[in-house]
Amino acid sequence: MLKAKLSSERFAHSLAVMETALSLAENYAVDQKKVWLAALLHDYAKDLSDSVLLKLARENNLLSCQVEKYQPNLLHGPVGAFLCKRDLQIKDQEILQAIYYHTTGHQDMTLLDKIVFLADLLEPERSYPWVDELRQICAANLDKGLFFVFEQILQYLLHTKTLIHPLTIKARNQLIYQRLDMK
Questions:
Q1: Which of 90, 124, 110, 127 is nearest to 31 (CA)?
Q2: Based on CB atoms within 10 Å of each CB, which residue in 2, 53, 66, 177 is the most buried?
C-alpha cells in the first residue's frame, strides 16, 4: 500500500529511513515495532502537493502557525500523521507523534521522535556537507546529534532568510535547558 502511494524514490527513502531508525534504536530501550512503523510511514504525505497539504491542514485544524501557511511542505508531517490515523487506522499516539513532528521537532521529543527525526536525516542516501559529522555524533549520543542538526538547520534558515518554525526553536532551546539543569 505504501509503495503504491509514494514515488519510487520516496518509497526507497522510507525503507532506508526505517533501516536507519532500527539501527539507531538498537542501543536504546524503545519498542522496535513502533520504530519500524513510524520510520516507514514518516513521509506518508510527502508526495502531496502544497495545495493539497494546505487544504487538508485547514480542513482538519492541523495548522499550528503562520510558517506552515508559507512553507506548506512542513505540513507533510502533521498531514501524514492525520492520514495514517484516518486511512490506515493507526491509533498509537507515539507513532503518530513521531510522524507528526519529524519535520520540525518539538520541545518534548520522545526517544521515538528523536530516532525518526534523525534517521530521516541520516539514511545512507543523504549527502549534504555535514552528514558524516552528524552520523559520528549520533553514533555516540542522540541528543548531541539532535542539537547539532538544529544548529545546522537554523544557520541555513538564517543564511537563506527563510522562516523558522517555532517548534524547531523550542526543541533546540529544550536541549539547552536540559544541559543547564545538569550543571
A1: 110
A2: 53
* Residue tagged 555524533 (cell numbers): 137
Residue type, 109: M
In order of 63, 76, 107, 109, 183, the CA distances from 176 in angstroms are 27, 27, 11, 14, 11
CB 18 within 8 A of CB 124: no
Question: Which backbone phi and psi does 32 adopt, to 5 degrees?
Answer: -65, -35
Amino acid at 94: E
Q: Closest Cα partner for 64 from 110, 103, 33? A: 103
What distance in Å separates the CA atoms of residue 50 and residue 28, rounded to the nearest whole number? 36
The pTM assigned to this predicted structure is 0.95
- 148-179: per-residue pLDDT in tens? 999 999 999 999 999 999 999 999 999 999 98
In this structure, the number of other CB atoms found within 10 A of the CB of residue 158 comes to: 10
What is the average per-residue pLDDT within 98-104?
98
